[in-house]
Amino acid sequence: MSDFTASVLETKNGFHVDGYEKISYDFTFLDGVFNPENPQLAECYKRWGRVLAVTDLNVYNMYGEQMEKYFQHYGVELKMHKTKIGEKAKTIPTFLSIVDSMTEFGIYRKEPVLVVGGGLVTDVAGFACAAYRRNTNFIRVPTTVIGLIDASVSIKVAVNYGNYKNRLGAYHAPMHTFLDFTFLRSLPTAQIRNGFAELIKISTCSHLDTFNLLDKYCEQLIDTGFGRTDGAPEEVRAAADRINKEGIHEMLKLETPNLHEIGLDRVIAYGHTWSPMHELVPETPLRHGHAISIDMAYSATLANSRKLISDAEHRRILNLFSRAGLSMDHPQFDEEILDKGTAAILKTRDGKLRAAVPNPIGSCIFLNDVDAKELNAALRRHKELMKEYPRNGAGLEAFVDASDTGYTENNTSEVKAVEAAAAKAGSLNGNGVIHGGSVPNGYMNGTNGVKQKLANGNGTVDGLTNGINGFTNGSRA
What we know:
Elements: E1 2-10, E2 15-23, E3 26-29, H1 40-43, E4 50-56, H2 57-73, E5 77-83, H3 92-105, E6 113-117, H4 119-131, E7 138-142, H5 145-151, E8 156-161, E9 164-171, E10 176-179, H6 189-206, H7 208-223, H8 234-255, H9 275-280, H10 288-305, H11 311-324, H12 335-348, E11 355-358, E12 364-367, H13 372-386, H14 402-405, H15 413-425, E13 443-445, E14 451-453
Parallel strand pairs: 3-10, 4-5, 4-6, 6-7, 7-10
Antiparallel strand pairs: 1-2, 8-9, 11-12, 13-14
Helix pairs in contact: 3-4, 4-5, 5-6, 6-7, 6-8, 6-10, 7-8, 7-11, 10-11, 10-13
């Protein structure tokens, strides 16, 4: 929620406006958010007597019945919008399908939409809420480690545009975020590992105590869904609760003064300097956690080469990634990719590298004075170090699958149509832009069955108006 204060001063040639927006929103740790014994979420909708919930199909298949019984218990009418969300469906057509549901529902201006799912769902639905009447409320219930630990902290919401990640978006805070770690009981181990990387990120550069706990309980945390699976030792669950709370708290302290990213030196951007390239380069995309882990591991080697961290600290960081089964290298991570990634991030960061690296573990420094020669030398050294680790530094279950893309039915007509157009145009990977091909009647089905008339009116797929971005690469930035 937000409110404004402003002043208007008359100048010689016109007026000068100073406006200030107060942003306030809440986080509640609540195991069993859809347990009828916990009225907290239902109370947010008591005034309205109804709720429009946006969720992905996988989450609905697992928790939909529980959600229906929960709101029925409290006499709140529930309408569900189910979407097959994934990076390739994080697009304007998916966004518009949510907008259509909001219109059909007749959402009131201050009535909050309920968004349940991982970071991709909260990104797209949050953007729909930001755009709808320019400011519609929403409440978040994240269901993945990345959603709980990372995406829940930010007020950034977005969709992809063409082959650019999160190119269209807004800063739009939810009214409330409910953090329910029991969702991790049903999350695949590969996704637990994927989110574990985000905790390494924040702890390595900003919270030594959390890093120490991750180092101590690494394998147990991953194997037990952060202490939430049956039979998990109480000690592990207690450690997990401390890690999660302190990790989220630390990220909030770092991000809250800079919610709109006016400052570009961001501690939580550790691992996000070169990782966008790692996500896009492989034919089968890397999961986001693995992509940032490669970046973080390489950045640690760069920091060690500069004597910003000791040899012991360097090895401690690399060993933690290895024990967690996270990637530290990829065969396609070479000097060319390093150079392209550097050039791309300089544009994003206003001409400076601003690479966050540990100095020492638990704190960080930003590097701006690194030239290509030094970067390449650090990469060659990093490649040599990786030969000492299992799989030469490759991670376990590092690549996306149906649980990431959101498509559990891989033969749907819309996917086939777009893939056919992409094949005709030349590529579904790499740059991923579809510049040719045609669709009968000038229409393409979106990922949720929403018919989108193509911009040029003649059925040509151009500029990725087809609903799944025309590429299979990428993950949440």
